[in-house]
Amino acid sequence: MSKPDKIKIGLLGLGTVGSGVYKLIEKQKDEFYKKAGADVEIVKILVHNMDKKREGVDPELLTDNWRDIIDNDEIQLIIEVMGGIEPARTMILEALHAGKNVVSANKDLIAEHGKELLDAAEERGVDFLFEAAVAGGIPIIRPLKQCLAANEIDEVIGIMNGTTNYILTKMFEDNMDFEEALAKATELGYAEADPTADIEGLDAGRKAAILASIAFHSRVVFKNVYTEGITKISAKDIAYAKEFGDVIKLLGVAHNTEEGIEVGVYPMMISQNHPLASVRDSFNAVFVHGDAVGDVMFYGRGAGEFPTASAVVGDVIDVVRDTQYHCTGRISCTCYRTTPVKDFKNVKNKFFLRMQVDNKPGVLASIAMVFGVHKVSITKVMQKEACENDGVAELVIVTEAVKEYQMLDSMEHLKDMETIREISSVIREY
């Protein structure tokens, strides 16, 4: 069978990432034949607003009609960078069923409907690649599916959101409070006008679902992921982390255990000696442990126009290579297991607690008794007077690893005690 000299592409979306993809393909157009064995050409770009001026893009390429792309038999590859669930899901399924290869950067869609899309690709023997859906330009999905495939992976943890990492870095290094750091992140364009998906852990939660599915070969969807954001992290918590030789990071944490998969996103105190502790500002990193390879870490820009475009165009090159040798669809869904996802209440973690209590004899003993009732072991206690005049002291307690429900029950018990003025912080420790 002959090899095509040129692969024609339909691009869905021309926002930040779509523009980066277009520019990068144009920049690399003289290299494609050497790298992939065929030239590529974007022949149609689906946009929402045809009247918007787009510098450097031929207006003849633009369309607001999906039929101009899906009904064009010459288009062999669709790049989807629109984001959101619909209409992206319907369009990708239609493209796959039509025998077109698809590259996507859509983490929201893949975290919810990845199995459906991968099954459709496998059915037609076409490629559905999505390296850019997690950690922007950092290679992680392909390494998990290919380079590390010989390993039994039991842990994937990572800083999967650049906005929150930037905020926590500013709080740690520049002594900013949360609101000030968020304002700075917004000013620099790291945070959206509505930062909820970032600061509440939802963005990282979708990425954690995708990585857990791939690493552990069993389907994990977004609703399986416990998510907690960074809005309650205070300057005092940061100060205590420094005192303990730790930093606070919003981590996606996934473990493959004998009892099932544990997966969540939440702030954690992590030792300054851990490789993830040195990941600053808007950078991302994913730390993986495999039984053969040991520890490996992937680090780099987790978002942005060109880092994300780098991953998208890398997938495009892979598709073109596969097309040249008539071997598309080689690697589709790798979830061949049905491992249960543990109820998060049964996951074990160490905890850091900071509370305001009455500064009088017997309070610490009564708190220790509550923890004892709920089988929570204490490893460290620190007490500092918060104010000489109001009779309140700040108490810090660090626990051994206990199940989440044990800590929840302890918290409910403590809240009912008159001597506890406030439970200010509950942060997990790695």
UniProtKB/TrEMBL annotation:
Residue sites binding NADPH per the record: 107
First-tier enzyme category under EC: oxidoreductase
UniProt: L-homoserine binding residues: 192
Record-annotated ACT domain positions: 352-430
Database matches in Pfam families: Homoserine_dh, NAD_binding_3
Pathway listed: Amino-acid biosynthesis; L-threonine biosynthesis; L-threonine from L-aspartate: step 3/5; Amino-acid biosynthesis; L-methionine biosynthesis via de novo pathway; L-homoserine from L-aspartate: step 3/3
PROSITE patterns registered for this protein in UniProt: ACT (PS51671), HOMOSER_DHGENASE (PS01042)
GO molecular function, one term: metal ion binding
E.C. no: 1.1.1.3
Active site feature: 207
InterPro entries tied to this protein: ACT-like_dom_sf, ACT_dom, Asp/hSer_DH_NAD-bd, HDH, HDH_cat, HDH_CS, NAD(P)-bd_dom_sf
Entry's Gene Ontology BP terms: methionine biosynthetic process; threonine biosynthetic process
Record's keyword terms, sorted: Amino-acid biosynthesis, Metal-binding, Methionine biosynthesis, NAD, NADP, Oxidoreductase, Sodium, Threonine biosynthesis
Cofactor(s) the protein needs: a metal cation
Residues annotated for NADP(+) binding in this entry: 12-19
The keyword Endoplasmic reticulum is annotated on this UniProt entry: no
Catalytic reaction(s) noted: L-homoserine + NADP(+) = L-aspartate 4-semialdehyde + NADPH + H(+)
Nucleotide-binding as UniProt keyword: no
Top-level taxonomic group: Bacteria
Family: Belongs to the homoserine dehydrogenase family.
Protein known as: Homoserine dehydrogenase
Organism in which the protein naturally occurs: Dorea formicigenerans
